[in-house]
Amino acid sequence: MQTKDELIETLKKIVKPYVQDEQAFEHITEDTDFIKDLKINSANLVDIALDVEEAYDIEIDNESMEQMLTVGSAIEIITKKLAEK
């Protein structure tokens, strides 16, 4: 299993194509909000969830997807889903 830092690095690669605020992306932390800070629109959040599913071979249900609003919450959900595999 990847460490939290490795998960963040993988998540950054997934998120990068959708980021509208490059400066915020350079300073990404677990508290970074995908919509407010990175200016990612909600349609692209769905794309990110699909990319995360493919990258980790996990399934993200709608409830989890709705909670995936920050880097930290995304890491939490990915870690939980990987543990359930």
Automatic annotation (TrEMBL):
Pfam families given in the database record: PP-binding
InterPro entries in the record: ACP-like_sf, PP-bd_ACP
Organism: Spirosoma foliorum
Carrier domain: residues covered: 5-82
Annotated Gene3D superfamilies: ACP-like
Protein name per Swiss-Prot or TrEMBL: Acyl carrier protein
